[in-house]
């Protein structure tokens, strides 16, 4: 795969300004991004991060480190690939490498903490015209292992394009409907790569890896193989092509803050449902 | 704090056998604990883990490593404290140190994956008469930073002692009511330690660190300081003394499998609500 052969992704560059949706931020003397070990008083965020054009989120810390090294080499960026440093090394909650890669942990709560702090970081650093990518592995629904799924719509376990969250004891619903065109443009890119089978499909987000995704091998399982297959067939018929654990909150929060997002995940060998 | 001065926690030793609630496990030729990088065919689990008496879950990987080293020293266990190895080092999803400590990541989904695999691990290793501890930091509600909260009841953001999960598109509710006596016995232990202020209280589990816990400094915030205080006062009046992100699923899953659990967390400096 030769990254330099990719066509320009013009549609992605449309974040003239981040709309942080929190009036309290303006009145705060200092903003500490606790889980990144960064802050507006302790770090010069515009100098450190103001030039960002791409942020990649996904996978485990080691996987993101390897990917950062790979991209540094592909783009022939200056610096020693082996000495790439973790910007968040003062904490081990998340890892961050410049050319920017972030490991978000597993599940909606873990990635939502990261997103709050990442969006504020991009805001404080006054970043403009950048794109957020989310990459990683997932369970496929009726697909061969290795297939890449570019997400069309992020849906919850009831196949609805929305994300529900409880705020001060009340359920709040946020849409996950996406920017038209971005996923098609990415699919177009992938058609120029021979060795990467790629499809567009809906991505289902669950809050549990075992029972929540219909797996039969958890410590608890109260359903039959037939129940599982019936649910997965229903998912497939609504357009679901892969299952993972973070996509809905990622889309919903970025959508509120007017940030362009691309989520694509390869189908792992762990599970190829159906 | 001198661990050897602690009285025996007899009430904890009541796990004659783990009740794994999954009939499919009996029919499987091999059980791979994906996120631990362990399996029933590749590892002798009874030999590696059969002698376990305590499992400690909590905090970040580095914090758990330090705690494992501290306990190794306090209990004067054999082996070089500095060479303590991560049993899950083939993956960086979780970390595990023998004398047994596990870092579970942040949020219900991340800890639930760990719990499925930990419960199966203890089952395959044929462990008996052990206790599970969960430790870490949390946001306090009306408490001084540094206070330890021994959990009486784990409640959700509506103050109910239950954990809800979606399984194959249906909402399943599991109770988080606890073994009577365990938390009182732990409080009794703490009364013998001069420098550790300890209380018993309800622990509220949320799925978000910022909006979900009423914080005003997230990237999104749609409520006022007054709304936040009203919600936290309501929480306090129902008995909530600290807020974190994993307790309900921990209690609910262990309860189904008849595993004794103790959860206690110290109030961090990050937040002392109210």
From TrEMBL, chains A, B:
The keyword Manganese is annotated on this UniProt entry: no
Keywords from the UniProt entry: Glycosyltransferase, Transferase
Catalyzed reactions per annotation: uridine + phosphate = alpha-D-ribose 1-phosphate + uracil
Single biological process term from Gene Ontology: nucleotide catabolic process
Nucleoside phosphorylase domain sequence ranges: 53-269
Single GO molecular function: uridine phosphorylase activity
EC class of the enzyme, as a word: transferase
Pathway, per record: Pyrimidine metabolism; UMP biosynthesis via salvage pathway; uracil from uridine (phosphorylase route): step 1/1
EC number of the protein: 2.4.2.3
Amino-acid positions noted as binding substrate in the UniProt annotation, renumbered to this chain: 213, 215
Residue ranges of coiled coil: none
Family: Belongs to the PNP/UDP phosphorylase family.
Role: Catalyzes the reversible phosphorylytic cleavage of uridine to uracil and ribose-1-phosphate which can then be utilized as carbon and energy sources or in the rescue of pyrimidine bases for nucleotide synthesis. Shows broad substrate specificity and can also accept deoxyuridine and other analogous compounds.
PANTHER family assigned to the protein according to its UniProt record, in alphabetical order: URIDINE PHOSPHORYLASE, URIDINE PHOSPHORYLASE 2
Protein known as: Uridine phosphorylase
Organism: Salmo trutta
């Amino acid at each position: 795969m030769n990254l330099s052969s990719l066509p320009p992704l013009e549609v992605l560059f449309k974040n003239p300004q981040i709309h942080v949706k929190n009036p309290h931020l303006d009145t705060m003397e200092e903003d500490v991004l606790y889980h990144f070990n960064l802050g507006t008083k302790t770090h010069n965020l515009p100098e450190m991060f103001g030039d960002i054009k791409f942020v990649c989120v996904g996978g485990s810390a080691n996987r993101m480190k390897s990917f950062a090294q790979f991209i540094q080499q592909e783009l022939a960026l200056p610096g020693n690939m082996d000495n790439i440093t973790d910007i968040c090394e003062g904490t081990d909650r998340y890892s961050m490498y410049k050319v920017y890669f972030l490991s978000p942990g597993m599940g909606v709560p873990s990635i939502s903490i990261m997103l709050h702090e990442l969006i504020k970081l991009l805001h404080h650093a006054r970043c403009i015209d950048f794109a957020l990518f989310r990459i990683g592995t997932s369970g496929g629904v009726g697909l061969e292992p290795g297939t890449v799924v570019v997400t069309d719509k992020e849906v919850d376990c009831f196949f609805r394009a929305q994300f529900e969250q409880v705020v001060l004891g009340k359920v709040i619903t946020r849409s996950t409907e996406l920017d038209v065109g971005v996923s098609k443009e990415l699919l177009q890119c992938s058609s120029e790569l021979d060795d990467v089978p790629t499809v567009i499909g809906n991505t289902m987000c669950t809050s549990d890896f075992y029972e929540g995704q219909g797996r039969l091998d958890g410590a608890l399982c109260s359903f039959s193989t037939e129940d599982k297959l019936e649910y997965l067939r229903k998912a497939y018929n609504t357009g679901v092509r892969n299952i993972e654990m973070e996509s809905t909150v990622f889309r919903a929060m970025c959508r509120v803050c007017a940030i362009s997002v691309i989520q694509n995940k390869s189908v792992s060998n762990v599970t190829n449902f159906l």
